[in-house]
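Complex 558.
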Amino acid sequence: MAERCAVIGIGQTHHTRRRDDVSLAGLVREAAVRALEDAELGWKDIEAVVIGTAPDLFEGVMMPELYLAEALGAVGKPITRVHTAGSVGGSTAVVATQLVQSGVHERVLTVAFEKQSEGDTSWGLSGGRSGGVGAGGYFAPHIKAYIERSGAPEHVGWKVAVKDRQNALRNPYAHLKLDKIDIDSVKGSEMLWAPIRRLESCPTSDGACAMVLANEAGGRRAPRAPAWVHGKAIRSENGFFPGRDPVNPVAGQDCAADVYRQAGITDPRRELDMIECYVPFSWYEPMWMENLGIAEKNRGWELTDSGATAFEGDIPVNCSGGVLSTNPIGASGMLRFAEAALQVRGQAGERQVDGARRALGHAYGGAAQYFAMWVVGSERP
Amino acid sequence: MAGSEPVSFMQQMVSLEYKLRASPVAVDFARRLCAGTITGHACPECGLVYTPPSGFCSICVVPTNTREHEVEIADRGTVTAFTIVNPIQYRGQKEREVYAVASILLDGASGTIGQQRLGDVDLDRVRMGMRVEAVWLPEEKRKDSAAMGAGLASAIHHWRPVDEPDTPLEEFAEHII
Ligand SMILES: [Zn+2]
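Predicted structure with zinc ion bound:
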C-alpha cells in the first residue's frame, strides 16, 4: 500500500419508503453534498467518482452511472460503477479506497444508492416471473439449516429483530422507527418464508450514502477527525457447487481473515469496538458472527442471546439499526462502512459507542457469495 | 431544493420478451429431461457429480462436456433444507396459496437442486431428511424449453414424499444447499 486512506466526509439521506420529492439524481446528490460539506470540500476538489447500486432491473434504469455523472459533478472526470449485488455498497467503497491507496487519486467521492420505490424488487429478484420467492425465500433454507445445525432456540431471531429496531430509534437517518416493537410483536408477525417472519425482515427503502476519501495529506488536513482505513478486502465464491456451505461461506471467512491481517487484529472479539454487519434477516446476525470469527461455529446465537451484541454489550452490532431498519439495497453495504467510520470518528450522535477506536463494516450479496469488508480506526495506521 | 421545480413521476409498464440461446450442454440436458431422465456430469478429476450440468467442474476447472462424463441421476432424493413460502403479491405473481420449496440432494448427485416445489404433502410435515420423488408432467406437457435454458420445472411438476426412512442429518450435512 503506497498511500494511507482516510474517510474525511460522510453523508446520507433520511431513508424512507418513498422519496417522491427527488429523482434518482436528486437522491444521490443529496448524500454527496452532505459528504462534501462534512469534508468542507467542493466539487472541484474531487478527482474521481465511484458509484454502486444493485442490478439495474430493480429500478428499471439501465446503466444509471451515465445519467448520474452530472448530478455527481463527474463530467470530465473518471467515473466507475461497481456491480456486486447486495454487497455492492461495500465493494464500491473498497474500489474507491484502492484508488486512493494506489496513489492514482488524492480525493475520491464514492456514492451508493437505491430508490426501491421506482421499481419492484420482488419482481426483479423473481426474474419477472410468477412463483419467485425473493431474497427471503432464497435465504430461508440457509437459515433453517443454521438453526438445525446449531440447535439455536427460535427466540434468538426475534431478539435481533427487536434490538436493531430499538437501535434505529437513536439514528435520525433510519427508515423504520418501530418504537413499540417487542418480542411478542415479532413472534406474532406473519410468517413470510419460514422461519422468517415479517418483523424479522428488512424494509424496502429509498436512500443514498456517500463518502469522501482522501490520501494521508488530505486526512491530516481534514476539518473533522477522519476515520483511517486499517484494512479492506473483497472476496467472492461460486454460488453453486457441491459441498459449498452457504451458512458459513469460505469467501466470508477469507475476507475477514484478510482485513484482520491488514489491520493487525488477532482477536476480533476483543480488538473491535463495534461492528456494522449486513443483516437483512434477523438470523444473519449470529450466522455472520461465526463467519467473521467473533463467535465459534454453531455458537453465534449464544453471543446474540447473551446481549453481547446489544448497544450496551461488549461487541455492539448494528448500532445504526442496520439493514433490518434501513434497506436501500445498493446503499446498504456502504451504510455499514460509513456507520463504522462515523463511530471511530466519534460522530455517531446518540448511537455513538463510547470510545470506539476500531470498527468493522461488512456487506454480503448474491447467493451469500460476495463479501466486502473494511476495518477503520481513529488512529492513523 | 429551494427554487427548483418539483419532481414528477409517471408509471410506465414495459414488457420485454427475449430469447436466450442455451448452451449445447443445457440443450442436451433438456432433451434428456423431456424424455424422462435427469442427467449430470461427473468430474474426471474430483469425481463430483453436477446436476444440472454446466459442462465443467468449477472446482477443478476442467471440462465435463462430452458423453463420457454423463451420468444418470435418480428422480428421487432427500430434502436437505426448505422453506414454506407465503407468496408476496408483486405484479405478475400468480401464486396465492402458501407452498413449500426445498433443496433436494438427488441420489447420485453431489450437490443439491434448489427451490424445488413440494406437493402432496402436509406443510407441517415437511422436514430436513425427508425422502421425495419426482412427479413428472405428462410427456406431451413437458415443454422442450431447451431454447430457454431448461430448468427441472419444465418437466417435473413437483416432488412428493415417499415411504422411506428419513436420511440422517450427518449424511447430508456437507450438502445442505
Ligand atoms: Zn472436479
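Residues B 43, 45-46, 48, 57, 59-60 surround zinc ion (CB under 6 Å).
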